[in-house]
Amino acid sequence: MPLALLHTKPQGHLTVDCIENGPINTNTYVLISQGEALIVDPAWDGAELLRLIAERHPNISIKGLLCTHGHADHLGGVAGIRRMLGEQTPYLISAIDAQFVPAARASMKRMWGVDVEDPGKPTRLLHEGDVIQLGDVELQAILVPGHTKGGMVYFAATNNGNFAFVGDTLFPGGHGRTDLEGGNTAEILQSLAKMAHLMPDDTLCLIGHGPTTTIGKERAENAFMIHALRHYPQDRYN
Questions:
Q1: 151 in Cβ contact with 117 (< 8 Å)
Q2: Residue-wise DSSP of 59-112
Q3: Which domains does the chain have, with CATH numbers?
Q4: pTM for the complete prediction?
Q5: pLDDT one-digit tens code per residue, 146-174
């Protein structure tokens, strides 16, 4: 699906629950539509995440594990969850970042002293324009390199609002680190512009660490996004 055709017509209903977890406060998101659930960025302790999810949402059916990028603090719970739910539980990540997961795990151990369990082989390798179906909602994959080589934003236009799961690409007033392996400052600025051009201003951006924001707020207040929009015009994405 060419990104000029990013679907913004509302469809379905999405409930989102955030679970902050782990030593660097990663936000794991539980997405629910029609009783089906996706876990976005299942970080750290998979068994504890499942316990919390079952406590909060006892009647859902978990359909998969979806990662915004390949850093270990965003996929450390994958192995534990699959062990408990079954290895057939789908694990989805970008095709680009999947190849860098071993290096990301090693980096996490060096930096934080945390040995993150190998998530195993992905069930589905994602590319820009791919669609992930959840209940009556569609999540659209947008490639946003800069924090990692293959980071993804997952955008959903629903009847209860526009949502974007942005990982560590965008933060309120800033952007993600670019000094880690695979990071690139020029690329992350292009990704900020791309997000602003493609997604409506009222899109709620659910961040990898910390509070939410909106595209409109960042367009107005984020100096990095403002700079990026001046340098990367909309016609690059048409």
A1: no
A2: T-EEEEEE-SS--GGGTTTHHHHHHHH-TTS-EEEEHHHHTTHHHHHHHHHHHH
A3: 14-232 (3.60.15.10)
A4: 0.95
A5: 999 999 999 999 999 999 999 999 999 99
